[in-house]
Amino acid sequence: MSVAVVTGSRGGIGGATVAAFAAAGFDVHGVDLGDEFPALERLDALVCAHGISGRSLGDGPVDTCTEAAWEAVLDSNLTSVFLYAKSAIGPLRANGGGVIVAVSSVLALVGGDEDFATHAYAASKAGVVGLVRAMAVTYARDRIRCNVVAPGLVATPMSRRAQDDPRIRARLRELQPLTGDFGTPDDVATACLYLATAPFVTGAVLTVDGGWTAR
């Protein structure tokens, strides 16, 4: 049986990812931000589905973002992915290959306007894209695939502010024209599962955003 570690397992996207991988036959070990990487005899997949929003900590445009918010968001959203990946490379290599999938954001790819001007968050998620694509090149020789999922607005506890904001809800038809609504955690989990099981895909950034970045 293939073995997967999913971070952020108690969150909306992480929880859906645990369920999707379990349904696909994986032995899934869920961890959350700050937990130690589990000691396993075998590892086939690492999915980094954790993350935080720094808005309540003082994230915002560069001129108003606090240094404390910058450090907290970069540590939680980027440094943690580096550390989990660092722990996974050895077991994946010993297994003859495998996959790392990290959840980023559309804000890694497009600039957010006044409704989404959290620059530490955007920088952290853009850093995830750069890190994972660099790993894809380096570890291809070890048959370790490395891919990114970049969601748009998804209905999770972390996006509650956006879900409750009438201005943002009124913009959904413009932002995510496919449905004019929030995506679901299952949408992202399905994309993670695809990238974890596609044997000839590495270095990919798969947007799951209802058309946001296609505009």
Q: What's the structural blueprint in terms of helices and strands?
A:
Layout: E1 3-7, H1 12-23, E2 27-31, E3 45-48, H2 67-94, E4 98-103, H3 119-138, E5 144-151, H4 160-163, H5 166-175, H6 185-197, E6 205-208
Parallel strand pairs: 1-2, 1-3, 3-4, 4-5, 5-6
Helix pairs in contact: 1-6, 2-3
Protein architecture, described:
By secondary structure, this protein is of the alpha/beta class. The protein is built from six helices and six strands. A six-stranded parallel sheet has the order 2-1-3-4-5-6, with helices on both faces. Helix 3 links the parallel strand 4 (98-103) and strand 5. The longest helix is centred in the middle third of the chain and has 28 residues, at 67-94.
Condensed summary:
Helices cover 40% and strands 15% of the residues.
Labels describing this entry:
six-stranded parallel β-sheet; alpha/beta; Rossmann fold; 215 residues; single chain; 40% helix
Query: How many beta-strand runs?
Result: 6
Main β-sheet, spatial strand arrangement: 2-1-3-4-5-6
Helix-strand makeup class: alpha/beta
- Counted up, domains total 1
Biggest sheet overview: 6 strands, parallel
User: What is the name of the CATH superfamily?
Assistant: NAD(P)-binding Rossmann-like Domain
The CATH topology corresponds to Rossmann fold
C-alpha end-to-end distance: 41 Å
Shape: globular
| Helix/strand order, N-terminal first | EHEEHEHEHHHE
Rg over alpha carbons: 17 Å
In what range is the share of β-strand residues?
Answer: 5-15%
CATH class: Alpha Beta
Low-confidence stretches: none
What is the percent of helical residues?
40-55%
CATH architecture: 3-Layer(aba) Sandwich
